[in-house]
Design brief:
Distance between the termini of chain B: 45 Å
Strand order of the largest sheet of chain A: 1-2
CATH class of the largest domain in chain B: Mainly Alpha
Distance between the termini of chain A: 95 Å
Structural class of chain A: mainly alpha
CATH superfamily of the largest domain in chain B: Cytochrome c-like domain
Largest sheet of chain B: none
Structural class of chain B: mainly alpha
Shape of chain A: elongated
Number of helices of chain B: 12
Oligomer: heterodimer
Helix content of chain A: 40-55%
Largest interface: A-B, 37 and 38 residues
Number of domains of chain A: 3
Shape of chain B: globular
CATH class of the largest domain in chain A: Mainly Alpha
CATH architecture of the largest domain in chain B: Orthogonal Bundle
Order of helices and strands of chain B: HHHHHHHHHHHH
Number of strands of chain A: 8
Number of helices of chain A: 12
CATH topology of the largest domain in chain B: Cytochrome Bc1 Complex, Chain D, domain 2
Radius of gyration of chain A: 35 Å
Strand content of chain A: 5-15%
């Protein structure tokens, strides 16, 4: 109370009195605060004049500020300031900055890009970002792939082919691998087991000779595996039939199976159930042609898995 | 002179005037949006068919699960018109693209990435595997696992009621022949069939089986619905059919 009394002797009151003795101190705002407040009011008026601000009927005041951008057809347009036009301009300015590289990417044949260290440098840095945003979710950040999901892009084994043209085709249109199920009506449990033994013997696993022989006959006969995977089991890149003679296993977890029995089980599951899940989305709708070309070079030369044939 | 003692001594008057004062901001900023032409862009194909359609019954149920599981707490669905967002996520979101969302899922918090254009970016298997165990696909992810979606059958008993409720809020699901015919005109015959409330359960089951979203066509799980919803996000507007500056004039 003593404090209050001291204050009341110094500070003016507003003159209002309630209930006979309730009074209100008059503590005006500091001048610096008031002036800052007046400045914000002046700023808002300037803002209203310059930028879209007030609703009027079915439209709004568009303001004096303008933005000039070029649309896809190369026509230069000037419009009132707005964030969508500003984005168009930002994208163009950035594009302009990278233009000399993107123009080169678009104009140069793949082989030449790969030989030009400066271009390859650009591909490595720009491609890394594109790869991380679009490809890494399935092929993992280093392109190492993921078993039972997406193939490795850093080895020499290609399902649809590892040439520039094939990689570009894959990215542009996507892929959808299908292998018909052989279980059920087609083959019985024992036959599928024999086939699995044969398939495992192709890359050199030592399997039961009798079962391998029976599987061999099925592979080239009743089961008709050869029609896609080829008589030699080396696959067919045109239709995405995998090479079965190497030790690279995308769908069946053979290396991680542990025992020979479990290896057979893993391969049997694939043969019996078939595959309808090797889906890679098409990127033509999301990425521009020169971005796809850049990514193709990135996969082929920077990740280094590309092949000549 | 004006005596504010009158206001301060009259609690009813003060209440009314206070409410009037604090609603000025909303009245000036929000109400005009309902009258300004172009707040919601009119996005049509060259043939005059509306590109943005209401969700199919299966997608709508997937959306319910998206909301039930609280996906919106970490994922936004609103790509802003900035260069960094355009590069990572794609074209900025249009108001038209969430016109049938009740409530909208724009969000303001991104712990995970924006999902406004997640549709068709990944395969169905990726979405299923990622929902069951996110870290098996993205090692650095902090997203929780949602394994029960794959084993829980989707409750389809009330899907027609849910659509009828949305119809009351203005979503053009059709309840009768006249509305159906109108939808055929606006969205085309294929879409109109999906929007017909009496056929909701049939349409839902058909889409789940033909789409095979969870890899098992024999039953309809919550995973089917959620993946169907995720795969349609941001895919309705075909920007390749539109000029890239079509939407500048609306803002």
């Amino acid at each position: 109370m003593s404090q209050g009394n001291t204050q009341s002797s110094k500070v003016q009151t507003t003159g209002h009195v309630w209930d006979g003795d309730l009074q209100e101190y008059n503590n005006p705002l500091p001048n610096w605060w008031l002036w800052a407040f007046y400045l914000t009011i002046i700023f808002s008026v300037v803002y209203w004049v310059a930028y879209p601000a007030w609703p009027v009927g079915k439209g709004y005041t568009t303001g004096m500020a303008t933005i000039t951008y070029k649309n896809d057809k190369g026509v230069e347009k000037t419009t009132h300031w707005n964030t969508r036009a500003l984005l168009m301009k930002d994208m163009q300015d950035a594009r302009e900055f990278q233009k000399k590289y993107f123009d080169k990417v678009a104009a140069m044949p793949y082989e030449q890009i790969a030989k030009d260290p400066e271009m390859l440098n650009f591909v490595a840095s720009a491609g890394k970002v594109l790869f991380a945003d679009n490809c890494a979710a399935c092929h993992m950040s280093g392109g190492q792939g993921k078993r039972a999901f997406a193939p490795s892009l850093v080895d020499d084994d290609w399902i649809y082919g590892g040439t520039y043209d094939k990689i570009q085709e894959t990215i542009t249109n996507g892929r959808h691998g299908i292998m018909p199920a052989k279980g059920g009506a087609d083959l019985n449990e024992g036959e599928i087991g024999n086939l699995a033994n044969y398939v495992l013997s192709l890359p050199g696993e030592s399997m039961d000779a009798a079962k391998v022989k029976a599987g061999d006959e099925l592979f080239h006969g009743k089961a008709a595996c050869f029609s896609c995977h080829g008589a030699d089991g080396k696959g067919n890149k045109d239709i995405g039939a995998a090479n079965l003679t190497d030790k690279i296993w995308l769908w069946a977890d053979v290396p991680g199976a542990g025992s020979a029995d479990k290896q057979v089980e893993a391969v049997k599951a694939v043969i019996a159930g078939g595959l309808n899940k090797g889906v890679m989305p098409a990127w033509s709708g999301r990425l521009k042609a020169d971005q796809i070309k850049l990514l193709t070079t990135y996969v082929h030369d920077v990740l280094g898995g590309g092949s000549k044939k | 002179m004006f005596d504010h003692g009158k206001i301060e001594k009259n609690i009813g008057l003060m209440l009314v005037l206070t409410m009037f004062t604090i609603s000025i901001g909303g009245l000036v900023e929000i109400v005009p949006l309902f009258f300004i032409k172009g707040t919601v862009e009119d996005v049509k194909t060259p043939e005059g068919i509306k590109m943005v359609r209401p969700y199919s019954p299966l997608e709508q149920r997937g959306r319910d699960i998206y909301i039930r599981e609280g996906c919106y707490l970490c994922h936004s669905q609103m790509i802003r018109p900035f260069r960094d967002e355009a590069l990572r996520y794609g074209h900025y979101s249009l108001a038209a693209e969430s016109q049938y969302d009740h409530p909208f899922q724009w969000g303001s918090k991104r712990t995970g990435p924006d999902l406004a254009r997640a549709g068709k970016k990944y395969s169905n298997e990726w979405q299923v595997q990622h929902l069951i165990a996110p870290r098996s696909m993205v090692p650095e992810s902090v997203m929780p696992n949602y394994p029960w979606l794959l084993t829980t059958p989707l409750d389809t008993s009330d899907v027609a009621d849910r659509m009828a409720a949305l119809r009351m809020t203005g979503v053009p699901y059709s309840a009768n022949k006249a509305e159906y015919d109108n939808n055929v005109k606006e969205f085309g015959a294929d879409v109109a069939k999906q929007l017909h409330i009496p056929d909701a359960r049939k349409n839902l089951t058909e889409q789940a089986q033909s789409g095979n979203y969870d890899g098992d066509a024999s039953n309809v799980t919550e995973m089917d619905a959620l993946v169907a919803y995720l795969q349609v996000l941001g895919t309705m507007v075909d920007f390749s059919k539109l000029d890239n500056d079509s939407f500048v004039k609306f803002r």
